[in-house]
């Protein structure tokens, strides 16, 4: 019984060879020829590539190397990371200005409280309003001011300081700044800053 099957080969005149079992030797021979043809073709292409590379190097022709650089995703991630760092740094720097103003407000309130005490020592009573530190009130003897400038009666945020006579918690007077927001209460830089 004859068994045939197709065998595809490279470099043969026929595209399909039908082999019978008794012709195995011829099949092996055909495969060897096909493999030799394949290797010789491959070697020719390889040699041609080598010669082209030498020619390129000799004539100084540059060819693109493997793609180097960053992908779009990498660039977007780096830009986002830089944005986060800049935003963090800006908030720390800009927020630092408000924290510095809190320290300045504390010092300014304490200085103004000292000026109020100086007014009391000279006049004999506490001023009715903060403006009495700048201009002499009518009917007051012993006033040796001005004790303060008009601009010194505002906190670092430009809000007027709050002054009460008599003060809260059985104090002679109370002097405070309402912080950055200018409203009573709050927290952080918006918190009230009172004299001690």
UniProtKB/TrEMBL annotation:
It is found in: Cell inner membrane. Residues 93-195 form the Type II secretion system protein GspG C-terminal domain. GO terms for biological process: protein secretion by the type II secretion system. It is a single-pass membrane protein. Keywords: Cell inner membrane, Cell membrane, Membrane, Methylation, Transmembrane, Transmembrane helix. It comes from the Bacteria. Residues 175-196 are annotated as: Disordered. SUPFAM superfamilies: Pili subunits. GO terms for cellular component: plasma membrane; type II protein secretion system complex. The keyword tRNA processing does not apply. PROSITE patterns: PROKAR_NTER_METHYL. The chain crosses the membrane at residues 70-91. Belongs to the GSP G family. This is Type II secretion system core protein G.
